[in-house]
Amino acid sequence: MTETVWMVGDTDEERRRWQPVLPPGVGWLGPDQIERASGAALVLEVSLGPLGPKRDRLLSLRDVGVSRIVSAATTATIAAQRQWLGDTVPMTGCDPLLMLAGGRVQTVSAGDHEALALLDRIWPEWEFTSVADSIGMVFSREILPIINEAVAFFEHGVSTEDINQGTKLGLNYPRGPLEWAEMFGWSSVYWGLRALEDMYGPRFRPHPWIRRKVGSSLLEREAL
User: Fold this and answer.
1) Do 71 and 94 meet the contact criterion of CB atoms below 8 Å apart?
2) pLDDT tens-digit profile of 96-141?
3) Beta carbons of 51 and 195 less than 8 angstroms apart
4) Calpha distance 101→126 (Å, rounded)
5) Which of 18, 97, 173, 205 has the largest CB neighbor count within 10 A?
6) CA distance 160 to 150
7) Which alpha helices (H) appear in 20-106, and where do they start and end?
8) pTM given for the model
C-alpha cells in the first residue's frame, strides 16, 4: 500500500481499543496531531462523542488537504458532515463499532469507488457493502439497544456473567452485551444511544446507569 492513510481518534484509550484492528501501515493520530495528515490519501475519523469536537476535527482535516475522509456515521449522517465541510472533501460513512467488532462484512454509506478501493486494500480480509446514509447505520442500531436493556437487568441484580452468557446462547453472538460495551467503551455506547434517541425517539434513551458510568464531566460537553 503506497497511499498515506491515517486513523484519527480522541484518546490513548481509544487507540488501545483500535490496536487489534489497525492494519500495518495505518498510523494513529490524536486530535492535536491533525497536521501530520497533510496530503493524506485517506483519513478515518472514528471517534464517537459530542458533535462539536467532531465537526472541528473534520474541518481541520479539510484544512490540511486530506484527499478523502471515512468518518464514523453513528452520531451524524454523512450528509450532515458534508454540510459541515461545504462538500469540499469526498466523504464515506462507516460504523466504528462494527469495525471494532471485526465483522467480516463492514457497512459503509455514501461511498465513492476510490474510497472503497482504498478500504479494500487496507483491510483485504473484510468485505465492504453500501447501506443507506442513516444515524447508527445497521450494527449500532442493533447492538446499542441490546446493551441498554442489558444494563437494566444488571442494575436489577442479574450478574454480568448471566447476562452475557444468556445473550450468547440465545442470539448466537460471539460476545455478550456487556462485553461489547467494554470493548467499545461506555462513552461510545452513551453517545451512540443519544444520537439514536434524537433521531428515533425515547426507546433509545441511555439508561441512567450508563449516564452515571460515563460521568458528569463528559455530559457537560453535550452542548453542540
Assistant:
1) yes
2) 999 999 989 999 998 788 889 999 999 999 999 999 999 999 999 9
3) no
4) 12
5) 97
6) 9
7) 51-63, 78-85, 96-101
8) 0.91
